[in-house]
Design goal:
Order of helices and strands: HEHEHEHEHHEEHEHEHHEEEEHEHEHEHH
Distance between the termini: 11 Å
Number of domains: 2
Cofactor: Mg(2+)
CATH topology of the largest domain: Rossmann fold
CATH architecture of the largest domain: 3-Layer(aba) Sandwich
Subunit structure: Monomer.
CATH class of the largest domain: Alpha Beta
Structural class: alpha/beta
Helix content: 25-40%
Shape: elongated
Radius of gyration: 23 Å
CATH superfamily of the largest domain: Phosphoglycerate kinase, N-terminal domain
Strand content: 5-15%
GO molecular function, one term: phosphoglycerate kinase activity
Number of strands: 15
Largest sheet: 6 strands, parallel
Catalytic activity: (2R)-3-phosphoglycerate + ATP = (2R)-3-phospho-glyceroyl phosphate + ADP
Enzyme class: transferase
Length: 401
Amino acid sequence: MATKKSVGDLKEADLKGKKVFVRVDLNVPLDDNFNITDDTRIRAAVPTIKYLMGHGSKVILSSHLGRPKGVTPKYSLKPLVPRLSELLGVEVKMANDCIGEEVEKMVAALPDGGVLLLENVRFYKEEEKNDPEFAKKLASLADLYVNDAFGTAHRAHASTEGVAKYLKPSVAGFLMQKELDYLVGAVANPKKPFAAIVGGSKVSTKIGVIESLLAKVDILILGGGMMFTFYKAQGHAVGSSLVEEDKLDLATSLLEKAKAKGVSLLLPTDVVVADKFAADANSKVVPASGIPDGWMGLDIGPDSIKTFSESLDTTQTIIWNGPMGVFEFEKFAAGTEAVAKKLAELSGKGVTTIIGGGDSVAAVEKAGLADKMSHISTGGGASLELLEGKQLPGVLALNDA
């Protein structure tokens, strides 16, 4: 992916008095009383917004929240205004819509350095259809475009891709820039040795990532529910563990591909098995080749943790996507927590550690180690697609540097 023009390339002369349409990802979780339960995404959007405010722009913020069908009050962005105002140190104004006359009046009234939050852009079905007329209406509010919503960059929607056709320049925000630098940079040009740790329950959702990484890594560590499909492909009994029967040939071919490319592929040597899928299940550690009938593997065992840790000690760059076990249950969280701790420790020694979205991020947050990693991706699907080597429409739409 070519290097994109960034908001940091724009100076006072480009920004002062200009109306800037900023697509941010404020899709935060709310509780039943509409309190924000995790403001990570709002905090992640702050540097770009502050930069624009500081250079005298009139900032127009656009985001989605949830998957509303039409105008749905419970998906309104209104509950976000107090926290956003607090973080930005200004009173953020809120519109009741994202297009139309009332919005145009509010934009016209914005002072330099002022911030207006538009209502949920997904209240219009045209947003997800990337309808050109709708994109034109959004774009008509502003002079230029900044996309800082990496989490939706893999979607070609009106506010993520469509508006860029009508606004020049169209540039990446700081968060988008950091995501691309780390995720594209690490995969294209990693400091070696380069290791990837891929986990999660199914091989099928990670095929693209595994195949793409096999061409780049020196070490590939596999864990999580997907490991049982690999065990079964190797002829091991897996008890009642999760297996994708239709992916056994694929697992075999991935093992062969790794061998042919000289990639050191590590599967867990021991497993924590349980007599049922529950937090209070009876559990024991067994060798990978000895899972008893009626038992299911829910985590990697202590021997695997040791082997994995030792192999990671040799690396300079590590990407991690997907947990090692059912970390939501305390009893089966040890493998995932051990990986998080190891990466935090290596990060302190100068190793580049990248947490590639999804459940791994939750696991690192849970372990309280988020601030120790080099980079934590804010995009689940978007980071997976980048690691698979796919082009993201929201990024392609931006001007090249």
